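User: My instructor asked us to take a sequence, write out its structure as tokens, and then describe one feature of it. I'm not sure where to start. Here is the sequence I was given:
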Amino acid sequence: MQKQYKARQSVGRFNSGDIVGGLSDSQIQDLLQRGVIEAVEEPAKAKSVNTKKDEVETNG
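Assistant: Let's start with the prediction itself. The structure tokens for your sequence are:
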């Protein structure tokens, strides 16, 4: 998965809070150094719910 960046302030066609995309690596590095954008942390993967397949619900 590609790293994502969020605008900390308005820059070009992006407003503060927007996910920034379509920029070259050099543009991204420049904006990061200037503090205009920040890397978005990847959300922790949700834990899968463990279900027991051998349990069967019965009506009765």
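For the description part of your assignment, you could build on this observation: The chain has a mean pLDDT of 84. Try explaining in your own words what that tells you about the chain.
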